[in-house]
Amino acid sequence: MTAAPADARTAGATAPIPVLAVVGVGLIGGSFAAALRRAGHVGRVLGVGRSGPSLERAREIGLIDEAVGAAEAAARADLIMLASPVGTFGAILADMRGALKPGAIVTDAGSTKAEVAQAARAALADRVACFVPGHPIAGAEKIGPDAADPDLYTGRNVVLTPLPENAAADVARVRAAWEACGARVLEMDTVEHDKVLASVSHMPHFLAAVYVAQVARSADSQQRLAIAGTGFRDFTRIAAGSAEMWRDIFLSNRAAMQAELTEVRAVLDEAERALDAGDGAALQSLLEQAALFRRDWKAGH
Amino acid sequence: MTAAPADARTAGATAPIPVLAVVGVGLIGGSFAAALRRAGHVGRVLGVGRSGPSLERAREIGLIDEAVGAAEAAARADLIMLASPVGTFGAILADMRGALKPGAIVTDAGSTKAEVAQAARAALADRVACFVPGHPIAGAEKIGPDAADPDLYTGRNVVLTPLPENAAADVARVRAAWEACGARVLEMDTVEHDKVLASVSHMPHFLAAVYVAQVARSADSQQRLAIAGTGFRDFTRIAAGSAEMWRDIFLSNRAAMQAELTEVRAVLDEAERALDAGDGAALQSLLEQAALFRRDWKAGH
To answer: Which of A21, A131, A193, B280 is 20 to 30 Å from A258 at the Cα level?
Structure first.
């Protein structure tokens, strides 16, 4: 392996992360690389991916220095970021396991964490301690290397859900990388993460998609759209996201979604009963609870 | 009645609407007056309202020239805009009926139209032909005279739902006033209006409020809010609106809301069944339908 000397020759060899590898060089992975590079936090950046044109484009615009395979990335990188779809993590980690450089840390940007932790355990087995699960909470409507933006994570929340096996120093290194991107880092239990994310991220998408599908199927859908205003626009914005990505998120976080849906349906039943009964007081009380809660959140932001 | 000469002395006596009266001088009514005044479309502006301080503030900042009672507004105005809550229209129109100046037109800005038409018929009886129902589709999160903005209606849709009794010339005058505000004017059947609005305006608010109330009631609601991102922000923005106003809208448009809710629930059932069964293909198909429909709408905007 002659890679280490080549990496050491680069100007960034003294950066906190001499060699970064990013698997999936789109919005999430590309922005991570761009933000770390701008902060002087990385030396060399390796890109791994299934799409030749995406990797080539990422190299052209300077997101990565070179494209390599998963095993080579494992052998050369100090930090590996998995930013490909969650369903690909198991195979990638299995490819990397035997090649991982001593001291290397692997982290990820997957939207659900229980399933990711399970896949990492299965693929890495006795080396799972090197895997520090994470989740940057940042928009993902745009895709591809050209969408990468060094400011994507500025002021955003990143949740780390450390495994019991993780060394505190490794968690701290992942935290420091995200902080160098301008993000606010929180630590959370895996199950609590998935529950909270089901509620504030996955459920809005699920409901927005259900609602938009219902409008789309109506006989007068075009007339509806012709007079839809800003309320419709904002309420449905997330429904335009990638169907594949959200399908995977919902299935990956199914148990937490089912639990939340049960609770959402209970409140929907209550609101509909008040409407059916013409019970203005009950309706207003529910609307007021929502309005006050939402205004408080806005005020805190 | 010495009012007519006084109004005729004002500089705007040759404007298309020599005297405008606005009932409710908040965001909706105040913005209408401000836009028409800027366009040179009105001469004198009279304000009618239940709140002394709001009327005084509206006069101070030049939205209205003077505050008068409902009967005096009826006697002096060429166009009367009802921009108070829908539930107040019946009493106001009954107060105005005996005093209405010959040729005066009354219009409104209520969010539902079947109930408004019914209230107008009951209050105005054989004079109902002067009432041209309308609905500007513009945001209403801010309230009060200070929220009034001459640009509020620029590029927005205004739906008129003329009564069979309306003279075409009267409908044309209301249309011209909205066009002078920069709005795009559509005409629609009353029932179709209420159905379409239930779908693209009232339902998003209903669902957003139900969802936010469910989050608010959760034991870990503060932790949820701490990591809520831009998807949550946009999806729930409308839930911060006035509980009273939305209660009245839902009750006023109850039948159309119930019909839409039945359809939304059917799609929710379908999505939940796909989730329960782990049926990725069904889930993706539904998400794709929503995403394509939403992207098409955005592209058309």
So the answer is: A131
Kindly give, in sequence order, each residue whose CB lies less than 8 Å from that of residue A159, ignoring residues fewer than 6 positions away.
Answer: A134, A135, A137, A185, A186, A187, A188, A193, B227
Yes or no, beta carbons of A261 and B272 under 8 Å apart: yes
Answer whether B271 sits within 8 Å of A228, measured CB to CB: no
Question: Is the CB of residue A235 less than 8 Å from the CB of residue A215?
Answer: no
Per DSSP, the three-state class of B181 is coil
Query: Any idea which residue has 């003077």 for tokens?
Result: B66
Distances B167 to B105, B135, B164 between C-alpha atoms, Å:
10, 18, 8
Cβ atoms of residues A72 and A23 within 8 Å: no
Q: Does the beta carbon of A277 lie under 8 angstroms from any beta carbon of chain B?
A: no
Amino acid letter for position B74: A
- Are B283 and A247 spatial neighbours (Cβ–Cβ below 8 Å)? yes
- pTM (two decimals): 0.83
The pLDDT-based confidence of B23 (bands split at 50, 70, 90) is very high
Classify burial at B37, counting beta carbons within 10 Å of its beta carbon; exposed 0-12, middle 13-18, buried 19 or more.
Answer: buried
- pLDDT for position A31: 97
CA distance B1 to chain A (A): 42
- pLDDT of A165 > 60? The answer is yes
In the beta sheet, which residues pair with residue B67?
B47
Amino acid, single-letter form, for residue A67: A
Phi, psi of A164 (to 5 degrees): -60, -30
**Looking at the partner chain, which of B159, B227, B280 has a beta carbon nearest the beta carbon of A157?**
B227
Q: What is the layout of strands, in order, in the sheet containing A157-160?
A: A134-137, A157-160, A184-187
**Residues B246, B213 contacting (CB under 8 angstroms):** no
Rounded to the nearest angstrom, the gap between the alpha carbon of residue B36 and the centroid of all alpha carbons in its chain is: 17
State the Cα–Cα distance between residues A236 and A209, nearest whole angstrom. 8
Contact in structure between A133 and A160 (CB atoms under 8 Å): yes
Listed in sequence order, the DSSP H helices in chain B are 3-8, 27-38, 52-60, 70-76, 89-97, 114-124, 168-180, 190-197, 203-217, 221-226, 230-236, 243-252, 254-276, 280-300
The two three-digit tokens of residue A131, written as one number: 């895997």
